[in-house]
């Protein structure tokens, strides 16, 4: 059976640092005499569940549309629970207890539980989230099989720790072939995942894109 690990998009989808939200406007409407319904959709490419490709922080890095299906398919996923509250860091010391399991994985999913703020306190979710520390990002560079990191936070960065978050992005993305999936839906999902597939919107001109994430359980 396959399940979603991504959120549906809507005009209420929270955006990092309370940025501009999704806009939908009708192009054709049956109710106004048109033959069909069609819509214009305007949104940031880092909206909702989305995948950061290297070009997000590396001008010479790959853009998301260059990835093949094989590169977006992960057969050795690992989901780790690390409870975090507002503005807390995820450090290398938090990850070290899982070292043997991370070493065998091609995608690491960090379930912080902060996702609940997405509904209960959207302001905190987009403004005061946890942050992956640069030392944690550096630590993850040591695993040659690891090709992606996913989190249930709006970003691995936090507006309250913006410079630390930027440095973590750079350590994971610059000069490397690595992906970061942010704003994932990991709530009430089983820990034992068999396979994960990331399906981004393939727009050639942009660094990264919203995505659908599927997991086999």
How many strands, what sense, and barrel or not for the largest sheet?
9 strands, mixed
Helix content: 10-25%
Q: Could you report the average pLDDT, rounded to the nearest whole number? A: 97
CATH class: Alpha Beta
Order of helices and strands: EEEEEEEHHEHHEHEHEEE
Unreliable spans are none
> What name is given to the CATH topology?
Glucose Oxidase, domain 1
- The number of helical segments is 6
Rg calculated over all Cα atoms = 17 Å
Structural class designation: alpha/beta
- Overall, the morphology is globular
Count of beta strands: 13
How many domains, in number, for the residues? 1
CATH superfamily: Putative cyclase
Give the termini separation: 6 Å
Q: What is the annotated CATH architecture?
A: 3-Layer(bba) Sandwich
Taken as a percent bin, the fraction of beta residues is 25-35%
């Amino acid at each position: 059976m396959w399940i979603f690990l991504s959120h549906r998009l809507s005009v209420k989808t929270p955006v990092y640092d309370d940025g501009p939200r999704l806009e939908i406007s009708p192009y054709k409407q049956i109710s106004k005499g048109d033959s069909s319904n069609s819509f214009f959709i305007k949104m940031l490419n880092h909206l909702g569940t989305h995948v950061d490709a290297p070009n997000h922080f590396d001008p010479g890095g790959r853009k998301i549309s260059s990835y093949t299906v094989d590169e977006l398919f992960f057969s050795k996923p690992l989901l780790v629970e690390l409870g975090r509250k507002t503005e807390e860091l995820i450090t290398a010391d938090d990850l070290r207890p899982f070292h043997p399991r991370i070493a065998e994985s091609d995608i690491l999913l960090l379930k912080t539980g902060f996702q609940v703020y997405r509904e209960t306190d959207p302001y905190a979710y987009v403004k005061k989230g946890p942050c992956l520390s640069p030392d944690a990002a550096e630590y993850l560079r040591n695993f040659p099989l690891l090709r992606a990191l996913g989190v249930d936070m709006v970003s691995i960065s936090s507006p309250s720790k913006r410079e630390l978050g930027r440095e973590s992005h750079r350590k994971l993305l610059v000069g490397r072939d690595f992906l970061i999936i942010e704003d994932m839906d990991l709530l009430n999902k089983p820990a034992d995942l068999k396979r994960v597939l990331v399906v981004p919107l393939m727009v050639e001109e942009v660094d990264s894109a919203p995505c659908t994430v599927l997991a086999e359980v």
